[in-house]
Design brief:
The structure is a homotrimer of 256-residue chains. Chain A is built from 11 helices and 8 strands. With 256 residues, chain A is an alpha/beta fold. The first copy, chain A, has an 8-stranded parallel β-sheet. The relative contact order of chain A is 0.14. At the A-B interface, helix 1, helix 2, helix 4 and helix 5 of A face helix 1, helix 10 and helix 11 of B.
């Protein structure tokens, strides 16, 4: 099929610098993880074990082995980091990262309040041994962060050593860079884009209209995150203009 | 991981008396049932084969074997009971229970009208041979049962021999103890709680905000039902305060 | 179970002329396809590889083998046809159909504008070698086609050689024969029914309320499409009156 259909938008290949897809795993079995990889492995750049599911699921060590076997980076969701930190157990969190021999770590403050200097200090410490993804934005829909704070925090976290910055949306896509009905907060997004290099940002975009928004705004190779395991292929068709929503957009850009 | 992170809300263990999770299976394959158990088996206290799916699915006998092999109680959804009863085939329903060697049976009147004495009579008969789960509430959003009837019916069903009482919400979470937009009918819930022992009730709570509501109201070890097979681990993180929505709630109760 | 429960609405059997269920596969693994078949194979009359997923997924040849092995017809979603046609690569589309030895082909114009004579010409050409499913309706919610055009287009496509006509709704069920909130456009539906033989139409009905609508309107053996792989068994219970929503409807028609 791929040798037949021509003039599609060009996608980047693994290992990707941009055009990343970060997948949310909130409790897949090892077999389900393998299944996902058999269909969509070439598009999965990062897997996040969402919020505290790493603690609750019964197959953690085995599943991490599956992802490692296929060369797919995997990391613990930021809420787990916060659960350790709020209990004054940061050293135990480091032990968890070592125990499972992870190479990536997420640092966030979406479920608790933390002085931003403290967050940057954690980023700085972990970035010596790990690629750090730091997340900006609250999980609480009632906490509003003004646009200029989003870009300021992101810049400081980059300076502290973050590898990528994650713009919060949750699994539901209804907080942070989106409002309660899932629509884009364009003020925040434009402010971030005016200050922070695009390839440094992973936009959480669990809902289809959010994926379309960012693909139309920033192109097929925008970094997107919190993609459900069964939405990776549909997302890829959006990036390629092979779904109604982006079909004419890319036809006009690439073919015409 | 579990040896590292401390001071989480205490959960009950299998076989549980409270803190039950009842899972809705509406047509899983045997392999999907095994997968679910490999990840979350320790949290699955009951599996309901939802509504009439037991009749329609092509793998009934085999799947019941899978659940039995892993020691997980399984039962037919109440709609199947009603389908037999409305056709005056209650004896055939008993044959179905015997044929598949089940130990649990659900009795409901959510899809048909039935005098409450008749329902209690069925409960009484079946409770001699089975652990009976009886469900209160209509599946029709237009049928409103006043709060004091909920508790009255529940008490009578307990007296008739029910092992647990299920508070109706359907797979969608939009009837019975919830309104059409999925929000809790607190009048009904408070009335039930004032009359019926909490450990006797399983609250159907398919939607995340409903699970959060009951966990905050009644604690991590509340009995919850109609949980989708891929939401068991996310629910467990809510019970443990390892997801944003209950993170601070349990931090303040358990750690602080 | 099936020998015990009597007086259910009569269903057709494979190979079906009506009562068809067309399933949307938007990226299943081979194992997931097998799993679906193990539970619901007897109800799966057609599988559509949705929109451009055939291009993006990594297991296309193997998955087509799985469906063929179980005797289940499989075809490419119409968006893929359109992607070839808009690039003036219709000959390459024929090569794709030949390469994977398919017996069915979908022709649509939901993502691009195409003169209706041209569409009918494609139908005419492909219907010499394939069973053609042609889809009427735009994927764009802002494009409204008046009722009499729906029936006119459908009649012309039948005349051009279509085997079945698909009434567009997308995966979301919010365009074409439904409005933005997923409710039925009864004007369009009644106009189609007044002109086109019912067994020629497959109604896309991904949402439960849409399935209920058509089952109540046209009976248990209505042709329905865009059914998610894990909703085949729940749909079958609706057709059989074994779910609350159609329980009394069929009791009154079949038993009473």
């Amino acid at each position: 099929m791929r040798t037949l259909l021509k003039k599609l938008p060009e996608r980047t290949y693994k290992p990707r610098k941009d055009g990343l897809t970060m997948v949310m795993d909130k409790g897949l079995s090892c077999r389900e993880a393998e299944d996902m990889i058999s269909v969509a492995g070439e598009y999965i750049d990062l897997v996040k074990l969402g919020f505290g599911t790493s603690y609750a699921c019964g197959n953690l060590a085995d599943k991490i082995k599956v992802y490692k076997f296929y060369g797919i980076p995997v990391y613990f969701g930021g809420t787990l980091f916060e659960a350790f930190v709020i209990r004054k157990q940061f050293d135990d969190y480091r032990k968890a990262l070592e125990k499972y021999k992870l190479e990536f770590a997420e640092i966030s403050d979406g479920s608790m309040t933390m002085p931003h200097e403290e967050k940057c200090h954690y980023i700085n410490m972990l970035s010596k041994d790990y690629k750090v993804l730091s997340e900006v934005g609250s999980k609480d829909a009632n906490v509003e962060i003004p646009p200029e704070k989003w870009s300021l925090y992101m810049q400081r976290e980059l300076d502290a050593g973050s590898w990528k910055l994650i713009a919060e949306a949750r699994e539901s896509g209804t907080v942070g860079i989106y409002n309660k009905s899932g629509e884009s907060n364009t003020d925040i997004i434009q402010e971030i884009l005016s200050k922070i290099p695009e390839e440094k940002i992973i936009w959480e975009a669990p809902l289809k209209n959010q994926q379309i928004y960012f693909i139309k705004l920033l192109g097929q190779n925008v970094n997107l995150g919190n993609i459900a395991h069964n939405e990776i292929i549909p997302l890829e068709t959006l990036r390629l203009g092979l779904r109604g929503d982006t079909f004419m957009h890319f036809y006009e850009m690439v073919v015409k």
